[in-house]
Amino acid sequence: MDDAHKGTLPPISLADVRTARVTPEEALALHAEGRPGKLEIRLTKPLITARDLSLAYSPGVAEPCLHIARDAALAYDYTSKGNFVAVVSNGTAVLGLGNLGALASKPVMEGKVALFKRFADVDGIDLCVGTEDVDEFVNAVRHLGPSFGGINLEDIKAPECFVIEQRLRELMDIPVFHDDQHGTAIVAAAGLLNAVHLTGRELRDITIVINGAGAAAIACAELMKAMGVTPRNVILCDTKGVVYRGRTEGMNQWKSAHAVETQARTLAQAMEGADCFFGLSVKGAVTPEMLRSMADKPIVFAMANPDPEITPEEAKAVRPDCIIATGRSDYPNQVNNVLGFPFIFRGALDVRASTINDAMKVAAARSLAMLAREDVPEEVNTAGAGPGTALRFGPEYIIPNAFDPRLISRVPVAVAHAAMESGVARKPIPDLVRYARTLAGRLDATANAMELITERVRANPRTVVFAEGEEEKVVRAAIAFHASGYGNPVLVGREDRIQGVFRTLGVEQPSGITIRNARNSDSNRRYADYLYARRQREGFLFRDCQRLVNQDRNVFAGCMLALGDADAVVTGVTRSYAVALEGIASAIDPAPGEVLFGLTLLLARVSGTVFVADTAIHERPDAATLAEIAVQSAAAARRLGHEPRVAFLSFSTFGDPKGHIPGSLREAVKLLDERKVDFEYDGEMAADVALDPALRAHLYPFCRLTGPANVLVMPGLHAAHILTKAVPRLTSGTAIGPLLMGMSRPVQIVPMDASVTQLLDMACLAAHAAIGR
């Protein structure tokens, strides 16, 4: 196999499943649950009334049709064409699984469409073309072309992929991009730019050996030369050895284009004295001896998947001076195509580019390289091996993190600028600075922040107590927590009951999962002594405390946390929020100077993230409590990458109509005035006023908020609870929480109907809060 590296994700195999810490059953369940698959179509215009239908369809739809017939460019103004990409495959090279056919490629193509949307807000559709005939494939895509703003070719075997891409580029006036080739090349090129910089080299002087002669390898060779590497210094190898001038065995026109004059005939010979190795081949293709023969400070991109040509451990053992990148997420410097294709298409679509040319690819690579050299934001800086470590430009950070929220406002701008400079942009963007700001607003930072939280927990695993350990979904969540690399779960419950759940699930108890029986734990006396010292002046005898420790798993879990036997606690499945909190609070105090409250995140496609408080504790908070809730909520919003704009909500707006509850909210605003806090706030106001800056500007120009409120402090628990339960069910939004804020130790209480996924997420959040304590 000449080119094992395919697409944005590692080839799927049993080894990959183990690496990703998911099981085949879990993967199948995700794809089958609810609405099968990963995609659906959402309407962008209201279709509620007869008038709506008349405008959107017959007879109103005739008007845009007539305009487009007169001027085809107007399709970008009146249809979704300008933000719509087709992900097209015939399934002849699906990941690392080979020729599975068009239909079997559909899950991958749906996933690619999902990545386009997730990372760059590009809409897409998967097209699975049921033919291996090049002419038929080209004609099918060509004739469907008017529907789309761009074509992303995927999982098509070589050499047909080269022919298909070239012919479609010639026939179509929209971007056609085979990501398996160019995506890998662009991201690897970004890493190479930084590795060359760190080792004091110049591109024109380096010698590169590329092992593999498939789609990605050929694209890497072409892009390296386009960026300034001297063509004769790029040596291509395949399973037959070096691709040299005069060779006839196993050759084709694409390999021949990169044949060079050289005496080297084997990979080992080519590697002698080389500055850089690009591997797009198979596990173990590079030996320690080959690496030892390379030049000083060798640059190694071992990108075979699922296992690299040589592992970082093996490489560092013989060449500690090397810089190494792989295709793996569990090593530094991952060459991940998701850093490229969403943002490249975003920029190309926004200037209505007729193609994606070398200038645009080089611009994307240079933009990625420059981003890696910048200071890493706090919300991204989560991949260190332990507290106190940080991501910083250097040998182990030459490629940006895929969840860096700055990618959306950097790479598309560079691509768009290159398209304009190279003459392929049909709609130039006059103000690229404003364009960058617009891009930043397309995506919400919370999804990125949550992913970064999980990365940080993997790097800093913690011991989390699952207080209701006999429940099947709790056991499932604990298994997933351990398998995800988040840390060591502790299940509180009776051993025989929990072992019975493991048997029901058909799994052995993982070695990293501990069972603690509250009734006969060796720590019970220590916990009872601790609890008695806290409660003896509250009417509790020692035997009362001992009984609580033995019989109340939340009390037991709280004592574990308080005395340092665990890092965090998750509970709530079997008892109401208030009862669960009472048990935990008997052993854990609020943080000094803070109040307890629930904070819920509402994630909506249009309005972004809104923080709502208090959603769990205070039925009718007074002014001082409302003010403190605002301060703590604003701090939480900042930690998740949002600049807080706090609105105190009420049925009244700035004194009209009057009432007792609005008075408490106005008093809270005065208290914040006195505290001179460092965030925007105002109130009281109705919800529409808080969320609509235009309405405020018209009726209340004195309001201090400069944009839509994103932290909503509710007047009471009733309103907060109704809002956060209703909104996700009435919209396409999502709710996370309520997160328990204000405790001195990390505790999260889930809803009684929490799913395994919710339990896992809350456990991860609790573990994250424990890092650095």
Q: Mind explaining what this structure looks like?
A:
It holds the Pfam family malic. Keywords: Metal-binding, Multifunctional enzyme, NADP, Oxidoreductase. Residues 36-169 form the Malic enzyme N-terminal domain. This protein is an alpha/beta fold and 773 residues long. Among the domains are: 14-180, Rossmann fold (3-Layer(aba) Sandwich); 454-585, Rossmann fold (3-Layer(aba) Sandwich), CATH 3.40.50; 597-742, 3-Layer(aba) Sandwich (Rossmann fold). Helix 27 (660-675) links the parallel strand 17 (645-649) and strand 18. Helix 9 (179-198) packs across helix 10 (215-227) and helix 19 crosses helix 31 (756-770). The longest helix has 20 residues, at 179-198. It is globular and about 95 Å long. Residues 1-20 and 382-388 have low confidence and may be disordered.
Supply database-style keywords:
Rossmann fold; 6-stranded mixed sheet; 43% helix; 13% strand; disordered N terminus; PTA_PTB; oxidoreductase
How many β strands by DSSP?
A: 21
Mean pLDDT: 90
Principal-axis shape equals globular
Low-confidence stretches: 1-20, 382-388
Largest β sheet strand count, sense and barrel closure: 6 strands, mixed
CATH class of the domain at 14-180: Alpha Beta
CATH topology of the domain at 14-180: Rossmann fold
* CATH architecture descriptor text of the domain at 14-180: 3-Layer(aba) Sandwich
* Class inferred from helices and paired strands: alpha/beta
Strand proportion, as a percent range, falls in 5-15%
Domain Malic enzyme N-terminal: 36-169
GO molecular function: acyltransferase activity; malic enzyme activity; metal ion binding; NAD binding; oxidoreductase activity, acting on the CH-OH group of donors, NAD or NADP as acceptor
Active site: 112 (proton acceptor)
InterPro entries: Aminoacid_DH-like_N_sf, Malate_Decarboxylase, Malic_enzyme_CS, Malic_N_dom, Malic_N_dom_sf, Malic_NAD-bd, Malic_NAD-bd_bact_type, ME_PTA
